[in-house]
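subagent[fold] <- orchestrator: predict structure for attached chain, return tokens only, no commentary.
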Amino acid sequence: MQSPADEVVIVIIAGTVLMLLLVTFVTTFFFLYQKRNFRYQQELMQAKESYARELLKSQLEIQNHTLEQIGQELHDHIGQMLSLAMIQLSVLEEELAESSHAPAMKQTFETVARTMEDVRQLSKTLDSGTVQRHGLQESLALEMGRIQRTGRFQTQFQCIGAPYSLGEQTETILFRMVQESLNNAMKHSGGRNLAVSADYAPDQFVLIITDDGRGFDAGEVAERALSKSGSGLLNLKQRARLLGGECALVSQSGWGTRVEIRLPRG
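subagent[fold] -> orchestrator:
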């Protein structure tokens, strides 16, 4: 027969075991809950990222399609109209060859000829097929040359290293990112010099777009509400992430702006 002391010990031991089992159960339940919740949050985040990528892809496809339509219209309609104007001016130039209007007619003829060439070059840069046919390097050189011919900006394009293919879709998106950065600089920077460098390093590809404009406070712009700051910088960052890379913007009032896009090489 067990003594009262033995019974107390047994009760204490049984209570301790039950408490340990309860603590183990609660701990295991909490751990499993946390693990499942973490997995759920990861899946939710992946779903959001996947949705954002698909939405961005759709936006880029729409943009490319729209730009291609504009480029085709420029090539087919505006180009034909300018060609007709060239023919008509050529006839007038011959008729006025001996008159006092000959110099003005010659200048007008040359202006229309330059305009027609600029329209042709612009239609090429709007067509994503240009990047697919000629590659990113040549397309960037074409774009910088087109801007140079406007006479409003001095441009410089530099290619570092031996060029390699990044894939048609990637190169098309990169080209559009450069175009957007250059357009922002031409519209807002107030500068006169634009430069683009493409660095084909063995482990990564780096695109840098710079201007010598007035610059701005990058920190202040980043803190603005989206409705006030616009979506240009956000679009650049999203496109870089879509490609598995990153986009950084460095600017300071009075020191111009630098956009740097980095992609790991496949």
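orchestrator: received. Logging for downstream: Strands lie at 154-160, 193-200, 204-211, 246-251, 257-264. The first helix runs from residue 4 to 95.
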